[in-house]
């Protein structure tokens, strides 16, 4: 949360004021790609390790997951370099983005050592340090006129060094490993990775599709118009954790699902206005130069944020009650639907067309989720 606030409220607004529109769109797009890779590959490996940690002895667990992390780190570097070449980013900026990609990718995985031991105080300290490092990065960027990509390098470096110090120098975790293959864990990881890759691609899809179709200005406008709404959605993270903890221990009756559906429908209208006017206020404060363009789509974007928020609240139920294979099939269907709608509506109607495509996709996703949950069992979902 702290790191998101630093980037959304400090780094991006600063870059918007200093860099030209092309550089700003490059930051938005490359940051999106790097987050997709880090979340889909590295964070999924962390979750896989947490899920399977009880089934392996300590040495085998270290060897298997270290081997897998080494492999996906190479994949991450190759994909990042390829993307930098495709988008024709200059060599100095590319070096900054590449280091940022490596640092955040490594941080996402190394946090597993603290999560395994439930050492959340250390995680908080690391996050505070990263937050302060981003402030330092902005200061150096403004005072010394360094390349904008190195704000992210400076922001991540101190946190990564601190993690390495905790893990390998204080806790004395082994650094060396023997390459080890475990078929069951690899297949479990690949399954989760594919699902999370699709989810994250869809989360950052606006940055991927808008740039080649209607240009960097559209990327900037949509990003700015949607940022406040996405920040509001961060509130659902602790709510989701509570819901998942509750449903893990309780039988969920069909009537409860219906009550949740009715409640979510009721709060949609006030939620829409909260997101809409908070977005306008946010744009007016941090991106005043985009106020006119962003205001034209802020109502559409608010609808998208409302639907995304509701889907996020429902998400714990899908994890708990819908089989992983069905989840994978659904994600593939949503992805195809989203891409087709976007490619049809965006070239013709621009940003508004893209917003309509996104709204239809999210509505279909929400409707199907509830239909599946309600039909899972006539009376009780166990």
Structure, explained:
With 382 residues, this protein is mainly α. The protein has two domains: 195 residues, no CATH class; 175 residues, no CATH class. Helices cover 84% and strands 1% of the residues. The protein has 15 helices and two strands. Strands 1-2 form a two-stranded antiparallel sheet. Helix 2 packs parallel to helix 4 and helix 9 packs antiparallel against helix 10. The longest helix is centred in the last third of the chain and has 51 residues. The protein is globular and about 55 Å long. The mean pLDDT is 86.
Poorly predicted runs of 5 or more residues:
none
Radius of gyration (CA) equals 21 Å
Provide the domain count: 2
What amount of the residues lies in strands?
A: under 5%
* End-to-end distance: 33 Å
Helix content: over 70%
Structural class: mainly alpha
* Number of extended strands: 2
The topology string of helices and strands comes to HHHHHHHHHHHEHHHHE
* Shape by Cα distribution: globular
Mean pLDDT: 86
- Give the biggest sheet: 2 strands, antiparallel
Task: Give the topology, please.
Elements: H1 2-18, H2 21-52, H3 58-86, H4 91-110, H5 112-116, H6 120-144, H7 150-170, H8 183-203, H9 205-214, H10 216-232, H11 236-247, E1 252-253, H12 254-286, H13 291-295, H14 298-321, H15 324-374, E2 380-381
Helix pairs in contact: 1-6, 2-3, 2-4, 2-8, 2-10, 3-4, 4-7, 6-7, 8-15, 9-10, 9-15, 10-12, 10-14, 11-14, 12-14, 14-15
